[in-house]
Structures are given as structure tokens and as C-alpha cells.
Amino acid sequence: MDFREELIHIVDKSGAHPAWGVKHCYRVYHLAKELSNHLTLDDEVLYTAALLHDTGKYPVYALKNIDHALRSKGVTTNLLQQMMFSPTKLPMILDAVENHMYYSEPGRSDEAVYIRESDILDNLGNIGLMRLFSLVGQDELIQTPENALDRARLFADALPDKVSTKAGKRLAVKRREETLRFLAGIKRQTSEYAWI
């Protein structure tokens, strides 16, 4: 099994909910590449960080009361050391994993910045809405459709300001508009959310 396939296997066997699993990781990776196409980034670092950034959230690796980004950094360290991964690239991957959340400051490398941007953007627009509603009843913060709507409103208001690159900001505006159109339609069709 080659290295990339091994990373996919790790995520597939982790018990990850599909909203955070391999397809989310692929979207983060490909969006990071798209947003940074004017730069030359280390593709191995970008791919590895994208595939492992949420491992600390997955049932096989998660620990109660530990921030998943910090847990992901620890899990990533252990996994990559066991795989004899390049020690010169490891710090860049760990920086990207640790700082991928919207509440973190962007990491030091371009790879870390674009992983963070892409993860934030995957929570907005049509894909973000699909992910939120797939988590109803599966996430402690999203137990009902109303919780998902509240979170969508919160993300639409807060996340675009967390994006720092020009390309990311342009996409954040578009995805925010997608979210707001959806919310306005739901509001109209449910007597202002009364019939959800």
C-alpha cells in the first residue's frame, strides 16, 4: 500500500462520521490546491495535513475534553513517526494540523494557511449546509434541525471574517450568499422557522 492509500485507510478505519471523513479531507486538499495555485506548495505536506487534520475528532483517536486540533497533532505525530515519514516535513504538517481551526491563528507556512482556509470554507455554502444537516442527532451541538439552522447562521456571520487570503475571501463571500439564500428560503417555507 502506498503512503497516500495508507492515509486514506487510517481515516476510513477511524470511525469518522462522513461529514469529517475522507471526502471532507479530499475537499480540503483540493480546495487548498485551488486557492494556492499561484504558489508552489509542498504537495506531500498539503495532502498529509489535509488527510490527518481531523484525526483527533474520530472515535478511534478522540479523547474527552481535549481540543480535537491538539489531539490531531498528537495522533499525526505518532502515525507519521510509525510510518517513518520525513522528519524535515513533519513540523510543517503538525503546524497545519494544529492550526486548522477557525478559532486558531493561521499557521506559519503557506500550506498551513491554505489548509485552514479550506477547512473553514468547507463549513460554508451548500457543502457546509449538507454537512451540518448530516450531523443532526450525531453531534452534541447539533441535536435538532433548529440547532443546524442556528449553526448555519453563526457560520455565515462569523466564518468569512476568519479567512485571510484574497482567493479565500472571494469564495467565502459566494458561499456565505449560498447559505443566506438557503436560510431565507427555509424561513419563508416554515412560517419563520415555526414549522421545522
TrEMBL record:
<keyword id="KW-0378">Hydrolase</keyword>
<dbReference type="Pfam" id="PF01966">
    <property type="entry name" value="HD"/>
</dbReference>
<dbReference type="GO" id="GO:0016787">
    <property type="term" value="F:hydrolase activity"/>
</dbReference>
<protein>
    <submittedName>
        <fullName>Putative HD superfamily hydrolase</fullName>
    </submittedName>
</protein>
<dbReference type="InterPro" id="IPR006674">
    <property type="entry name" value="HD_domain"/>
</dbReference>
<dbReference type="InterPro" id="IPR003607">
    <property type="entry name" value="HD/PDEase_dom"/>
</dbReference>
<feature type="domain" description="HD">
    <location>
        <begin position="21"/>
        <end position="124"/>
    </location>
</feature>
<dbReference type="InterPro" id="IPR006675">
    <property type="entry name" value="HDIG_dom"/>
</dbReference>
